[in-house]
Specification:
The chain has 71 residues and is mainly alpha-helical. The protein has one domain (3-67): 434 Repressor (Amino-terminal Domain) (Orthogonal Bundle). It contains 5 helices and no strands. It has helices at residues 3-18, 26-30, 34-42, 49-59, 63-67. It starts with a helix and ends with a helix.
Length: 71
């Protein structure tokens, strides 16, 4: 998994944890494929901008927040 994919996965996990959203519930709430969601988290697929936008909306953050390095 390259650095950008790893950063996105880490940020999704961290933001979901902070908002008390189970990762298993996030794909359905965002309207994305569960299979694709977990493939992105593993670094097996690249997310599209639309996908990132849908995930960010559920996590109540900006798309840019998903690309930032975790604190």
């Amino acid at each position: 998994m390259d650095e950008v994919h790893q950063r996105i996965a880490e940020q999704i996990r961290e933001l979901a944890r902070r908002r008390k959203i189970l990762l298993t519930h996030l794909p359905q709430r965002a309207g994305v494929s569960e299979t694709h969601f977990f493939m992105v988290l593993r670094g097996d697929r690249s997310p599209t901008v639309r996908w990132l936008t849908q995930i960010a909306a559920v996590l109540e953050c900006d798309v840019g927040d998903l690309l930032r390095r975790p604190r």
